[in-house]
Design brief:
Chain lengths: ~270, ~260, ~280
């Protein structure tokens, strides 16, 4: 569904050029939940921005349904890490969630329904007429998610969306996002630096190298669905996967080649 | 002392102190024989006679109409041009030297230019007020737009917000705190330009009245006009603050929560 | 997997670049100058109101050799300087004294908020009455207007002093005066610098206003006389001169402010403050 081919991104020119992304190949199938992990500074956000069409790549391309991505595609939504800066502070929750729908020119009733359904899915029904600054961090991020949902995208890109929330809220949000993606049939690309999170959430994990970024390894995650914060994390497979990802990242950081994985890696 | 009591004391002082000074002035000038500073009671009488309400139609209304017409034009042009320039970096680069030069010209120096080109009627006053009040609004709108959070901009791009919405429903509200800052400056400029344009080339208006009174040695009347201008200045400013408070409620809330 | 044979090279953002950025301002200025020279010559703009700009600039160049020109500039500068000076001499000490006492500050702040929006131009007739049409009127008006702008900044500056700094000084046994001179004053300097910049602009505006309305000698008067005498090119030339003067004075104060501000953590936006 989404295909990244030989993606490269270099900032600046000449001597000051910074090669953020070297050569990334990536494929995302429909209804998959793909997690992207890597060490800090490995260009995860840059990759996501190129994938979403916000930044033009210096080389390579991104295709969505085999159409070249040259700007943010209509069927794609993006959830940012800094939720408080991505919500419009002068709009209520309802207005924020409804805003992207203006472009679709739906009739009023349908639009209202979409908004209310999305807000209900994130459990914020009572807060429709509040302003973002009246809500907590976790709630604001849920509004951002609801906004992405109401937009009815086929694919959602998320840039470390839960990094700025406390651990408890993060656990709730993780479960929420899984549930929503299942229910709405949304494909997801989820960038995170939290290894546990990536194993917990993903169907597949893409491990990136430090800059200039390449795909180091891709892992399939065989854990049973639906995931549970306690039970899934108690499984030995979880620990193995987690350890594998850890070592993979550490090793590359230390400059050595990764060991052969216990679970298969696919191209 | 507690915050609430401090605020009450502050408001109390704000009303009390000017009043007290006024009373002091009244007492000191009661037996005044100085030509320039007639007894306060005389000034009050002149005020009552002129501004409540005989001259309202003949002088206050034309003055304020001209002022708000000029200001209105400045707001519309300034905001629209500011939004457009704010969104285009290259247009800004091109326009910058011209804008910087034009805004450096002291407003009164433009008055003869206005008289030359537009004459001495109402049009001239509206023209000069609009011309001068344009700059703070325009420049602040540009600053407001360029200062919009990049994440907000990216959000608009991600969701493919159409052009019109982007300008009117995103950029304009986002820049509005900055626009109001410019508006405050423009409001005081509008009052100033209104007064001097009337002193230099007019046959009616508050500014005209004050100068005329001085020329005909009607000193208490002159003072009454000065008082009126002071009251107007204060009222307009307070009014703008109230409007701003209402319109920018979201901004205060967002900033307060951002600061923790 | 349908990958491309070789990676595509895309041009950076704004790929349809024909003109480099640095060229744009020059082009636009040139464009405006050409426009305002040609349009009056071909009659699109009435040359009675808009003489070709080359002629105006010629007149300006000519003026630079005339003593009457420099007299006018000198008079304006004199009024501006005295107005600013008087305002500073009053506002800075007063501001510091008032700002250092919390109670005094609270009582006076209310008064200042009340008096500040009063347009100083309303006092023009009073100035004429008391001081006539000479330099004194100009200085009175310029000083009056600048005073309010400056004292507000001084008060902010004094109030904004970090209480930790003053407490530290007090714990070291510094007297009140010493604290004032060694802690409060230095940390208020950036605000005073900003205040002076704003006050300078205001003083210039009121000086020219006084010359215009009252007729005291200076550029304002010269501009009016040029217009009423029908010498339109001279009028424009003098208006441009006041603009240049404004820019020069502003630049001086901005540089001074920058020098003083470079160590100060506060941020100030210079645009919204000045008229």
């Amino acid at each position: 569904m989404l295909r990244v081919s030989h993606l490269g991104k270099t900032y600046g020119e000449g001597e000051e050029a910074v090669e953020a992304i070297g050569d990334v190949d990536l494929e995302v199938a429909e209804n998959e939940f793909v997690c992207v992990v890597g060490p800090s500074g490995c260009g995860k956000t840059t990759l996501l921005k190129c994938m979403s069409g916000l930044l033009p790549p210096t080389s390579g391309e991104v295709r969505l349904h085999d159409e070249r991505v040259e700007g943010p595609p209509e069927r794609m939504a993006l959830v940012f890490q800094e939720y408080s800066r991505s919500l419009f502070p002068w709009m209520t929750v309802r207005q924020n969630v409804a805003f992207p729908l203006r472009r679709k020119k739906l009739d009023k009733a349908k639009g209202r329904e979409l908004v209310e359904h999305a807000v209900r899915s994130v459990d914020l029904t009572g807060f429709l007429d509040r302003y973002p600054w009246e809500l907590s961090g976790g709630m604001q991020q849920r509004v951002a998610i609801a906004r992405a949902l109401a937009y009815q995208p086929e694919i959602m890109l998320m840039d470390e969306p839960f990094a700025s929330v406390d651990a408890q809220t993060r656990a709730d949000l993780e479960d929420l996002i899984l549930e929503i993606c299942r229910e709405y049939g949304v494909t997801a690309v989820f960038v995170t630096h939290d290894i546990d999170e990536s194993v917990y959430l993903g169907d597949r994990i893409v491990i990136l190298t430090p800059a200039p970024t390449r795909v180091q390894e891709v892992l399939d995650v065989d854990l049973p669905q639906p995931r549970d914060q306690v039970e899934t994390k108690e499984l030995p497979e979880f620990a193995q996967l987690r350890g594998h990802v850890w070592r993979s990242i550490k090793r590359k950081q230390e400059g050595k080649a990764p060991e052969a994985a216990a679970t298969s890696s696919a191209g | 002392m507690s915050a609430r009591r401090e605020r009450l004391l502050g408001s109390g002082l704000e009303i009390f102190v000017p009043l007290a000074l006024l009373v002091l002035w009244g007492v000191l000038s009661a037996g005044s024989t100085t030509y320039y500073f007639p007894p306060l009671t005389d000034i009050f009488t002149a005020f009552k006679d002129n501004w409540l309400f005989s001259r309202v139609g003949s002088d206050v209304v034309p003055s304020l109409t001209r002022m708000f017409a000029g200001l209105g034009i400045a707001i519309v042009v300034g905001v629209v041009a500011g939004l457009l320039l704010g969104l285009s970096r290259r247009a800004r680069l091109a326009a910058d030297p011209i804008l910087e030069f034009l805004r450096a010209i002291p407003p009164p120096a433009l008055l003869p230019f206005a008289i030359l080109v537009v004459g001495v009627g109402d049009g001239m006053k509206i023209f000069i007020i609009a011309l001068v009040c344009l700059w703070p609004i325009l420049l602040n709108t540009i600053d407001g737009v360029t200062g919009v959070d990049p994440t907000l901009r990216e959000t608009t791009r991600v969701y493919g917000v159409p052009r019109g919405d982007r300008m009117w429903r995103v950029m304009l509200p986002a820049a509005s705190p900055q626009i109001f800052a410019g508006l405050r400056t423009s409001l005081s400029l509008a009052l100033i330009l209104m007064v001097i344009s009337e002193m230099v080339a007019s046959t009616n208006g508050i500014g005209y009245f004050v100068l005329q009174s001085q020329r005909t040695f009607a000193i208490p009347e002159m003072w009454s006009g000065i008082f009126l201008l002071g009251i107007l200045g204060y009222t307009f400013n307070a009014g703008l603050v109230l409007i701003e408070r209402r319109v920018l409620r979201w901004h205060r809330g967002a900033r307060a929560s951002a600061l923790g | 997997m349908a990958t491309l044979a070789r990676p595509t090279r895309r041009r950076p953002d704004g790929a349809r670049l024909r003109l480099p950025d640095w060229l744009l301002p020059w082009l636009s200025v040139l464009g405006v100058l050409v426009l305002f020279d040609v349009l009056p010559r071909i009659g699109v703009l009435p040359s009675r109101h808009f003489p070709p700009i080359s002629k105006t600039l010629g007149t300006l160049g000519d003026q630079l050799t005339q003593s009457s020109f420099w007299d006018a500039v000198g008079s304006t500068l004199e009024g501006w300087a005295l107005g600013l000076g008087v305002a500073a001499a009053l506002a800075i000490p007063l501001g510091i004294v008032i700002g250092s006492s919390r109670l005094l500050y609270r009582s006076v702040r209310a008064l200042i908020e009340f008096l500040r929006p009063i347009p100083s131009v309303a006092l023009i007739p009073l100035a004429i009455l008391i001081y006539g049409s000479g330099l004194k009127s100009t200085v009175f008006l310029a000083a009056f207007a600048s005073f309010w702008q400056l004292i507000v900044q001084v008060l902010y500056g004094v109030q904004d002093v970090d209480p930790v700094a003053t407490d530290t000084a007090r714990s070291f046994g510094f007297s009140r005066t010493q604290r004032l001179l060694r802690v409060t004053l230095p940390s208020s300097v950036p605000y005073i610098a900003t205040g002076l910049r704003i006050a300078s602009a205001v003083s210039l505006i009121l000086t020219v206003t006084a010359e215009l309305v009252i007729g005291s000698s200076g550029l304002g008067k010269a501009i009016t006389e040029a217009r009423s005498g029908g010498d339109v090119q001279l009028m424009y030339a003098l208006i441009i001169t006041t603009g240049v003067l404004g820019v020069l004075l502003n630049t001086i104060f901005v540089q001074g402010e920058r020098r003083v501000l470079h160590w100060h953590p506060s941020q100030r936006d210079s645009r919204g403050a000045a008229a």
